[in-house]
Amino acid sequence: MVQKAKILLVDDRPENLLALEAILSALDQTLVRASSGEEALKALLTDDFAVILLDVQMPGMDGFETAAHIKRRERTRDIPIIFLTAINHGPHHTFRGYAAGAVDYISKPFDPWVLRAKVSVFVELYMKNCKLREQAALLRLQLEGDGHAGGEHEKEPAGLLAELSARLAAVEEQAEALSKQLDDESADAAAVATAAHLERKLTGLRRALDALEPGTGGSAGVLPAQG
């Protein structure tokens, strides 16, 4: 069973949250509500999110201040933030949103299809990253086990490497298709950059697997850094 990604919706008006839920429900992911910046920061303490939709105009802690707190935390600094605002104050206001760490800035009323498409890109990237981390963790676990086993089960590592290679190939194929889709749709620069970062991680993991193949001269105890 594939675990669903979580999307954080932050807005002080219940009707706006309902509208966002109606638009994004088609993505079949887990939608989490927050009615204030403080509530959003509390949710981010315990859960991982694929993307945050953050209203700018909120009483108390506004969207800019909330984003600043999110970007200061190591755990949450890399979560994409899409700002939503009902008022367009011009380029300076928009620049402030990007300076606060937003990957996109959308004025209300927005096109539901466009918003859903933008969010789906970040959900897809998040799911690819999750798969990559799972494969890397499995490989490291097996390598640690091999070190303790002293070579008692020589056939098992080879079988595991073949399985990991096949799984990685599937992820690589999906990542390549996603990159082509982003190119075709002239997507946001932030989404393209995130996809490129994912491909670099996949390349590093592929090199690690290749180095572990018999006859390559690679060390089974060392993995290249995943930057």
UniProtKB/TrEMBL annotation:
Recorded coiled-coil stretches = 161-188
**SMART domains on file:** REC
Mind telling me what this protein is named? Two-component transcriptional response regulator, LuxR family
- Gene3D superfamilies this protein is in? 3.40.50.2300
Q: Which domain of life is it from?
A: Bacteria
Family matches, as InterPro entries: Bact_response_regulator, CheY-like_superfamily, Sig_transdc_resp-reg_receiver
| Keyword Repeat annotated | no
Keywords assigned: Coiled coil, Phosphoprotein
Residues bearing 4-aspartylphosphate are 55
